[in-house]
Amino acid sequence: MIRVLLADDQNLVRASFAMLVESAPDMEVVGQAANGKEAVELARSARADVVVMDVRMPELDGIGATRLIAADEDLAGVRVLVLTTYDTDEHVMEALRAGASGFAVKDIRPAELLAAIRTVAGGEALLSPGPTSRLIARALALPPTPVTGGPEGLSDREREVLTLVGRGLNNTEIAEALGLSPLTAKTHVSRIMGKLAARDRAQLVIVAYESGLVIPGR
Fold first, then answer.
1. What digits encode the pLDDT tens for the residues 82-113?
2. CA nearest neighbour of 135 among 171, 76, 89
3. Please, what sign has the CA dihedral across residues 185, 190, 191, 196?
4. What residue intervals traverse the membrane (predicted)?
5. How far apart are CA 159 and CA 178, in angstroms?
6. Which CATH number fits domain 2-130: 3.65.10.10, 3.40.50.2300, 3.30.750.210, 3.40.50.300?
7. What angle (nearest 5°) sits at the alpha carbon of residue 47, between those of residues 3 and 130?
8. Which of 23, 54, 55, 156 has its CA 20 to 30 A from that of 86?
């Protein structure tokens, strides 16, 4: 069972999400928080697998709560799915920098939300659906960025792979782009995550953007 914690300051929203999550045979709601402070405390006590986190909440907002959860070594296995009505690029990048594994808007379809929770619980990043796709779309519209001067400690091939991860490609697509087998592409991604101490692919995307391997908006 996937243990889900819901954090939102609106009672009706939390109740609706709780009914949806409980309707899934492989999920259960283990707690509900009305603000970010409660979310952090419940993440520690309820041992949730996934926290569905609103951005704007009293006392401590969702970004701050996500940052605290991601920084807590005892909560290393807890993933955060940020869910909000505010779909600005700034919120996307801020949430991912804080340690979120995914970002989606509240008008997501019920089946898509359940799929998003499963994706994040499985250790993957929710990068393609929702507003995050705008960042990747802008990057894909640009000429390929040279992979020189990337993160220290990575080989040229690993910087190439990291660039494609930053552009939203999955392992199969990376393999096709570089003429590799899917298993080899997966191995490269795993090694990069290890070298950069990244929790998941979402953090690799941040590294790709902030290191200049992918430059959106140019």
1. 887 755 556 666 777 788 888 888 888 899 89
2. 89
3. positive
4. none
5. 12
6. 3.40.50.2300
7. 50
8. 23
